[in-house]
């Protein structure tokens, strides 16, 4: 380790502590969102999302339970809370603005919901079902104080029969939620407790509709529909509860006039004469009525629908394997849709908003949406069926950090997803894995998904071959075994997938061109990013047209599909065609449609209702930075101008100007404790003389109550370090620590913390292990272990540097104690490897081998397994695993 490691460790340290982005409760219900969508103001607090949530199995007798519930957050325990903190708007995630709370959960906390429901009573021949669209992650349900049931899986629906515990009059429903997000074994998609880059704010708790449904004591519990356009039949399987068979039958009636009556068990078939096929240009659907009949009397009725369509891979007239829809080659021109909202996060503000996302993609000329690592509510797929769009549905990946323990949770969620979404004609393709995220047993799981659903294509791995700027990042010779597609990702410019017999070639992701839209960004303090940086709208349109020219050439060479990243910005990503709040199109939509029509050779059409939606086109007028700096020097000081100019100066790395402009902005700030202003202060306060420092230092608790634990201390200690430690450290000789200690004593405990952490990192970089042994335990035990910025990754990195260069037993023993705790929290191969090597270096050979074998066993394809195996082999031979 050399002198440059000091800077590296401090870079890791600073990144870790500023990655925390917890959000906290507001006292006013429905707090202002920084960039709300147009639908946020239309949310009815008493009746949010009032539409029937399950269009493919609809009944008339139901009650929507969305609305205001009581909520509480407690430490992890099973005791129901006595006191609730306030109101939360269900079904919006607790982290969202629309929830009225906007507060995050830690992995050790429990979220509780409670509400009272008046029930008129249950007759002897009735049942009352309690339905949840989705609760992330583990939900435990109590009714009138009695445990009713649990469900694990944050993306799929579940139902509970509560007939036996309800009473006439008031009934209390309590929902307990545990959601560790990316710190647990649960599939969590792009959600993160530390959002940034391509990971986003978590969506914990109830995030889809809750409703009650009154049904007969014998009732239809499920319907499975499969169409066969070649034979003209639609096959229907109806599941029931408490039907004895004798005297019971099922009647099915279709909107084309055909009907059938059959027994309870087995499939029923309807012959659809001259079937009207479902396509994106003509999304025709048949209505279906299903009646449960007992002794010639209808006792239960469910309404549903289906589409006649077929998806397959076949050879075209030239012998090229293509994607065929209804026995015709249809190019899948798509976008990568993440399904996030700035005001509702995982939950769209209204049903019209949900519908808009699909409609606007069609208006831009796309016929396909890849729903990326998220399962939507049933109504999203209903709108996709009705509006006509091909859907590639990703499964939500397992937590790569916690394999193999996360495998069961993943496979359970996959099975539930297939079952829940099976009937939707829009879904043509299941995507099993994405870019090695938690990839394991790919061949087995690909075959398993095909067995569960032989009616759709299976993309075993989207982007296992990943190109970024023409550099192959993840070669995988067996990537496509047993899959229907060969799929690569290529950023930013498109390229073709490998040609394998019997498989269609697809480009699962490309593009990602970044254009930043001031006034419409999730965080106005960030410039955002795209795969080619951030450019002008005109350059974006030109690049997109160039990419489509390439797609046309690739299509002639055998490409069957391409998925552009992405339709909308998402939090820190500024690479959408439309801003995150759905307010601004970065290029005119009609121009996009015209470009896309060059490959689809059609005019994209959407319902008249959506053609009238007006979306602004980005103003391309650009005022140069130098002109704005001249305005600043001439005295312009309005707050919006100063705030944006600070961000622009920071983007250009004009650090002296950043501090000058930021300090002038803060001096005129009337409300420094608004969240958006505190975020500005923590970002642009760099030393103890900056205006923002005193605001933070004198109001630590108040700042943390708004931004989250440790946020004030993170910025304060960084400022003390920048002003009082770094300028006085010469990396070539031992610092005068006593002088530094005197200088920062005026900052009290935070000054002491800053000193200790600086000594710890300095000692590692300059191999002063006597100093490390002297200060490391005090720093970690008193401060480090309680700070969010001291992450497991940071501790692993520090411990590994010690392993590589340190021979001091006392220092290594401290590192062992640290990494042992990390392994308990995050049992990843990399953490186990560090632990094993430290043990081995201190002479605990047998235990080291045991731990290293665990590291090898846990490896799932991510990272370099050959290094783990080499370490194990050296340990068994008694050879050093470090450089002598």
From TrEMBL:
Keywords, in A-Z order? Glycosidase, Hydrolase, Signal
Query: What region holds the Glycoside hydrolase family 2 immunoglobulin-like beta-sandwich domain?
Result: 261-309
Q: Which residues form the signal peptide?
A: 1-19
Q: Name one GO molecular function term.
A: hydrolase activity, hydrolyzing O-glycosyl compounds
**Annotated ranges, domain Glycoside hydrolase family 2 catalytic:** 323-463
Q: Which residues form the Beta-mannosidase-like galactose-binding domain?
A: 111-188
| UniProt-listed SUPFAM superfamilies | (Trans)glycosidases, beta-Galactosidase/glucuronidase domain, Galactose-binding domain-like
Statement: the UniProt record of this protein carries the keyword Signal:
yes
Please name the InterPro entries in this protein's record. Answer: Beta-gal/glucu_dom_sf, Beta-mannosidase-like_N2, Galactose-bd-like_sf, GH, GH2_Domain-Containing, Glyco_hydro_2_cat, Ig-like_fold, Ig-like_GH2
Could you provide one GO biological process annotation from this protein's UniProt record?
carbohydrate metabolic process
Q: Which PANTHER family match?
A: BETA-GALACTOSIDASE, BETA-MANNOSIDASE
Q: Which family does it belong to?
A: Belongs to the glycosyl hydrolase 2 family.
- What is the protein name given in its UniProt record? Glycoside hydrolase family 2 sugar binding
Task: Please tell me the species this chain comes from.
Answer: Chitinophaga pinensis (strain ATCC 43595 / DSM 2588 / LMG 13176 / NBRC 15968 / NCIMB 11800 / UQM 2034)
């Amino acid at each position: 380790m050399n002198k440059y490691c000091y800077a590296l460790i401090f870079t890791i340290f600073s990144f870790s502590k500023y990655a925390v982005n917890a959000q906290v409760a507001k006292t006013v219900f429905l707090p202002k969102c920084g960039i709300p969508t147009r639908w946020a103001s239309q949310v009815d607090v008493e009746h949010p999302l009032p539409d029937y949530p399950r269009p493919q199995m609809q009944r008339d007798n139901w009650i929507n339970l969305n609305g205001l519930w009581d909520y509480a957050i407690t430490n992890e325990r099973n005791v129901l809370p006595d006191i609730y903190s306030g109101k939360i708007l269900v079904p919006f995630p607790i982290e969202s603005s629309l929830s009225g709370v906007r507060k995050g959960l830690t992995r050790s906390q429990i979220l509780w919901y409670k509400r009272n429901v008046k029930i008129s009573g249950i007759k002897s021949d009735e049942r009352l079902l309690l339905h949840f669209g989705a609760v992330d992650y583990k939900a435990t349900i109590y009714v009138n104080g009695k445990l009713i049931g649990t469900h694990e899986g944050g993306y799929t629906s579940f139902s509970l029969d509560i007939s036996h515990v309800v009473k006439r009059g008031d009934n209390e429903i309590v929902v307990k939620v545990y959601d560790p997000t990316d710190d647990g074994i649960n599939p969590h998609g792009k959600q993160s407790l530390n959002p940034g880059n391509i990971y986003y704010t978590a969506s914990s708790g109830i995030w889809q509709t809750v409703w009650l449904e009154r049904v007969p004591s014998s009732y239809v519990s499920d319907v499975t529909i499969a169409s066969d356009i070649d034979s003209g039949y639609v096959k229907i399987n109806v599941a029931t509860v408490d039907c004895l068979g004798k005297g019971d039958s099922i009647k099915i009636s279709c909107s084309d006039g055909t009907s059938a009556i059959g027994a309870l068990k087995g499939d029923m078939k309807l012959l659809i004469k001259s079937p009207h096929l479902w396509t994106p240009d003509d999304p025709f659907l048949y209505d279906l009525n299903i009646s449960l009949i007992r002794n010639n009397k209808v006792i239960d009725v469910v309404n549903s629908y289906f589409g006649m369509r077929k998806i397959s891979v076949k050879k075209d007239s030239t012998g090229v394997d293509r994607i065929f829809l209804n026995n015709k080659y249809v190019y899948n021109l798509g976008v990568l849709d993440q399904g996030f909202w700035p005001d509702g996060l995982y939950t769209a503000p209204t049903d019209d908003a949900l519908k808009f996302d699909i409609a606007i993609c069609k208006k831009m000329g796309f016929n396909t949406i890849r729903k990326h690592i998220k399962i939507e509510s049933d109504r999203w797929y209903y709108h996709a069926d009705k509006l006509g769009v091909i859907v590639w549905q990703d499964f939500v990946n397992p937590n790569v950090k916690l394999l193999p323990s996360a495998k069961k949770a993943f496979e359970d969620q996959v099975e539930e997803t297939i079952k829940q979404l099976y009937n939707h004609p829009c879904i043509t393709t299941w995507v099993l894995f994405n870019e090695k995220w938690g990839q394991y047993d790919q061949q087995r799981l690909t075959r398993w998904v095909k067995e569960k659903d032989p009616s759709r294509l299976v993309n075993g791995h989207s982007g296992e071959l990943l190109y970024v700027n023409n550099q192959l990042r993840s070669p995988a010779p067996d990537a496509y075994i047993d899959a229907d597609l060969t799929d690569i990702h290529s950023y930013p410019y498109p390229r073709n997938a490998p040609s394998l017999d019997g498989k269609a070639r697809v480009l699962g992701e490309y593009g990602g061109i970044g254009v930043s839209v001031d006034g419409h960004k999730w965080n106005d303090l960030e410039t955002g990013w795209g795969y080619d940086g951030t450019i002008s709208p005109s350059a974006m349109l030109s690049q997109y047209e160039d990419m489509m020219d390439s797609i046309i050439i690739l299509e002639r060479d055998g490409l069957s599909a391409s998925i552009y990243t992405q339709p909308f910005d998402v939090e820190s990503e500024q690479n959408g065609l439309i801003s995150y709040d759905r307010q601004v199109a970065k290029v005119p939509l009609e121009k996009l449609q015209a470009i896309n029509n060059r490959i689809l050779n059609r005019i994209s059409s959407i319902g008249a209702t959506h053609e009238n939606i007006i979306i602004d086109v980005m103003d391309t007028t650009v005022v140069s930075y130098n002109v704005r700096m001249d305005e600043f020097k001439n005295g312009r000081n309005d707050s919006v101008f100063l705030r944006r100019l600070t961000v622009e100066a920071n983007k250009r790395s004009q650090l002296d100007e950043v501090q000058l402009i930021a300090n002038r902005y803060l001096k005129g700030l009337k409300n420094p404790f608004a969240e958006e202003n505190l975020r500005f202060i923590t970002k642009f306060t760099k030393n103890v003389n900056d205006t923002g420092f005193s605001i933070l230092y004198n109001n630590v608790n108040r700042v943390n109550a708004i931004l989250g634990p440790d946020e004030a201390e993170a910025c304060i200690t960084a400022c003390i370090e920048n002003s009082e430690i770094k300028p006085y450290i010469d990396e070539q000789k031992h610092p005068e620590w006593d002088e530094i200690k005197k200088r920062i004593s005026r900052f009290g405990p935070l000054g002491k913390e800053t000193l200790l952490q600086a000594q710890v990192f300095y000692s590692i970089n300059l191999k002063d292990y006597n100093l490390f042994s002297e200060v490391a335990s005090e720093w970690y035990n008193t401060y480090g272990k309680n700070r969010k910025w001291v992450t497991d990754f940071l501790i692993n990195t520090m411990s590994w540097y010690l392993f590589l260069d340190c021979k001091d037993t006392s220092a290594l023993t401290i590192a062992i104690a640290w990494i042992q705790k990390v392994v308990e929290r995050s049992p990843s191969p990399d953490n186990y490897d560090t632990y094993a090597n430290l043990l081995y270096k201190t002479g605990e050979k047998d235990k080291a081998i045991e731990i290293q074998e665990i590291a090898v066993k846990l490896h799932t394809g991510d990272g370099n397994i050959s290094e783990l195996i080499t370490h194990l082999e050296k340990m068994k031979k008694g050879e050093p695993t470090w450089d002598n």
